[in-house]
Amino acid sequence: MRRGSIVQLVLLGVLFGGGAAAVALLIPWLPDPASEQADRIDFVFWFVTTICIAIFALVAAVIVYSLLKFRARPDDDSDGPPTHGHTGLEIVWTAVPAVLVTAISIVSAVVLARNDHLPQASAAGARDPLKPLIVKVTAQQFAWLFTYPAYGNATSSTLRLPLHVPVDLKLKSLDVIHSFWVPEFGQKQDAVPGLDTHVVVTPKRLGTFPVICTELCGLGHALMRSWTTVMPRADFVKWANAQKKATGGGASGGATAAGKTIFVNNGCNGCHTFKPAAANGTVGPDLDKLTEAAKKAGQPLDAFIRQSIVDPNAYIAPGYPKGVMPETFASLPKPQLDALVKFLSGGSK
Ligand code: CUA
Q1: Residues with Cβ within 6 A of ligand 1?
Q2: How far apart are CA 212 and CA 221, in angstroms?
């Protein structure tokens, strides 16, 4: 091969490689990672992308060079020169891809294993609920509910996580298949009815990120969203202990405070009006008028409230559509449910 041809091929390769690299680097394809797992996934992504760009540059350069160099003249009707295979070339183009594909699978396997690894509590730190922190994630059409077993089963409709602490999210679905996704955490995990799935997240950056359901699960799928807030460890412990205390149910005299916390934590205030909680949502019925509503439904007040929380479609207030209120609250622990019923019935007396 002449030196001029090699220079032309290299120039074409640089041109195509540079173009592809510019498309890869200048467009923000991926969100800024907020977890250690997302960092590793990004590494695999760029590892594979770099290999792809190199191969693209090589193939595109050879194709374009051949098109220009070996084009037949319009008046050339002769046959091309007979060519046989090139054993050396064939060995190279078989061996190089084999090495690359093997490298990609090894890197991917290492990252998958490390992302799934959950450091177990050491003997000394066995009583530290943050090593690792377990959060139960309950998915249902069309809402998320997060439960903290280490903090008296406190529940929240948004996911709060401590910075730099490995978290084991244990997913459960109460109806159809949903999928938990925080783009900044880089992972997706399905919540499947009858199956226990989990995903490990170690947040590495403070901030608030969206929680998205990424499995088409029904009419309200697009609205099945929440938020996750990554907090400094000390702030998280303070918050979680406050939830535990407020929703513990055991503390005498704290029932109203407990009820109010549960009301706000579970997002009731987002849809309902209720003066004792300073809530003014208008999606659902006005909870300041629960006494009248119970009369209309022909039920005792407390029983009516309880039923409306755990089985919201059993009785639909006139003028409101069916199936809007999530049924997730059926999984509230009993002490919290009791406190919530007490709080709500107290407000309309
Ligand atoms: Cu749940 Cu889509």
Answers
A1: 142, 178, 213, 215-217, 221, 224
A2: 9
- Rounded to an integer, the average pLDDT of 30-54 is 95
**Whether this model's pTM surpasses 0.85:** no
- Maximum pairwise Cα distance, the chain: 101
* Mode of pairing for the β-strands spanning 167-173 and 197-201: antiparallel
- H-assigned helices in the chain: 3-26, 36-69, 87-116, 233-247, 255-265, 290-297, 301-310, 334-347
Q: Which of 332, 215, 195 is nearest to 262 (CA)?
A: 332
Look over the chain and give the mean of its residue pLDDT values, rounded to a whole number.
87
Cross-sheet strand order for the sheet of 133-140? 154-156, 143-148, 133-140, 167-173, 197-201
The two three-digit tokens of residue 228, written as one number:
């996750």
Which protein residue's CA is at the shortest distance from atom 1 of ligand 1? 178
Kindly calculate the radius of gyration of the chain based on its CA atoms and give it in whole angstroms.
29
**Which segment, 53-67, 277-291, 324-338, is predicted with the most confidence on average?**
53-67
Q: What is the pLDDT of residue 281?
A: 81
